[in-house]
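Question thread 4412

I'm putting together a teaching handout and wanted feedback from people who do this every day. The idea is simple: show students a protein as raw sequence, then show them the C-alpha cells that encode its fold, then repeat with a second protein so they can compare. Below is the first pair exactly as I plan to print it.
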Amino acid sequence: MENNRILQGVLGLLLGYNVVFFTAHLQGQARALAEALAEVQSLLNIFELIAVMVLFVDLVLRFDHIASRWQVPRVAAVGLCLTGMLFKWFILYLHLSYLVD
C-alpha cells in the first residue's frame, strides 16, 4: 500500500503543477512563471516525463486492482497529466523557437 500512496502523491503533485501552469497561462502570467522556473525547466521536464511514464505504466499494469469507482477518475487524471506535459512541451518549443513572445 505504500507504493500506492507515493503514486497518489505524485499524481496529486502533477495535477497541482498543471493547474498552476494553466491558470498562469490563462491569466497572462505565463511569462512570470517561465522566468521563475527558467533555471530548473530542463530538470523539471525530465522529472515530469519520468513521473507521467511511471503513472501510465502503473495504470496499465494495475488497472484491475484499482477500485471500480476510481478507475475512470484515475484514467482521466493520468490522461490530463500526459496532455498537460505535451502542452507544456509545445509551449516551450514555441518559446525556444521564437515563434511567440
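The second pair follows. I'd like the answer to focus on this one:
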Amino acid sequence: MSDENTLELDFEAFIEAFKERVKEGMSYRDAILFTSMTFGGSAANLVKQADRKFQEATFHKTELSKQPNVDECALASMDKLWHGEHFEGSTEQMQSSQEETILDTLYFILKYAESENALESVLAANDAVCGDKRARKAFLEMAFDVA
C-alpha cells in the first residue's frame, strides 16, 4: 500500500474517532485536538498546522484575517506566516498532495464546523477555493456524516 493510501486510511480513521468525540458532546475543535493527541505522529502534526492557520485566519488583528479571500490565502500559506500580500516560504504553484488535501480539510472543519449551517458553509468555502475540491468534499462530507 502506498504512503498516500495509508495516509488517506489513517485520516478516515481519524475522522471517525473525532466524530465519536463530537457525539459525546465535544466541540469539533476540541474533538479534533483531543483526537490528534491520542493518534499522535503525523495526525498531531497536521492538526497543529491546520489549527495554527485557523487561528491566524480568524483572529481579527492578523493580516490574513483581513484578506477578502481569507480561505484561499490561508490554504496557500498553510504552515507559513501571512505577511500582507505574500507569505513566508515558497510561492511555487504545487499540485494538491494527499497531505495538503487533509490540511485543507482540517482547516475548513475548524473554521466552519460551529457555524449555524455548518455543512452548507463548509461546502461553499470548499467550492470557492482552488485545489482538489472533490477530495476535500469527500472528506468534509465524511466529517459531517453526509452520504
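Top answer:
Good format. For the second protein you could add a caption like this: Residues 3-143 form one domain. The helical segments are 3-23, 28-39, 41-58, 70-76, 98-112, 118-127, 133-143.
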